[in-house]
Amino acid sequence: MIGLLMLAASSWAQCPERLPDEYADDARSSGRVFLVVKDERFVGVYENDTLLPGACFTVQLGPAADDGPKAKKGDMRTPEGWYAVSHRNPDSQFYRSLAINYPNFDDVMYGIEHGVIDHATGNELAAAINAGRLPNQSTALGGDLFIHGNPNGWMNDWTWGCVAVQNRDMDVLYQLGDPGTPVLILPTLGENESADQ
């Protein structure tokens, strides 16, 4: 029975055929983009703003993913905003993985403004981001966020803030997710953007 549920999981995802207009106009979307929409629980891969055939998959997130963007270590939330694949791991404990370069500048500013990190830590993180390096993953903001496989076939939101897909779907994402590939994580699609497009 579990095998049948896993087989059907990918068919539940309904990605829009095109990136939402407000993001399609962004310079970061000029090539390949991974779009994760948290409330719809999908990841789609877009090339020049158009969904690649067969590249829309159901995801599992953290149990607090719908409570807003990631704000601190251990909050079980998935971040929101523009990120990028920092590196690939073919031997992840969760099958295969694509690391996401969390935190970004917005996360750092939020952390400083809300007392999650101090200015010195914020400056260190910002310097790494400016230099194109993976920021320190051990601050109070948290880190070690990935798009990764799901080796045990879990169907409910179970991650610590990562984006999990079935292993066969991860094979596709892993091939398409070169380091530097933009990853856009949204809480929801806008009112005028629906998966029915």
From TrEMBL:
Q: Which UniProt keywords apply?
A: Cell shape, Cell wall biogenesis/degradation, Peptidoglycan synthesis, Transferase
Top-level taxon: Bacteria
Pathway recorded for this protein: Cell wall biogenesis; peptidoglycan biosynthesis
Is Cell wall biogenesis/degradation set as a keyword in this record? yes
Q: Which SUPFAM superfamilies match?
A: L,D-transpeptidase catalytic domain-like
Record Pfam families: YkuD
> What InterPro entries does the database record attribute to this sequence?
LD_TPept_cat_dom, Transpep_catalytic_dom
Q: Where is the active site?
A: 148, 162
Question: Which terms does the record give in the GO molecular function aspect?
Answer: transferase activity
UniProt keyword Transferase present: yes
Tell me where in this chain the L,D-TPase catalytic domain is found.
32-186
Q: Which GO annotations describe the biological process of this protein? A: cell wall organization; peptidoglycan biosynthetic process; regulation of cell shape
Q: Which PANTHER family match?
A: L,D-TRANSPEPTIDASE YAFK-RELATED, LD-TRANSPEPTIDASE
Q: What name does this protein carry?
A: L,D-TPase catalytic domain-containing protein
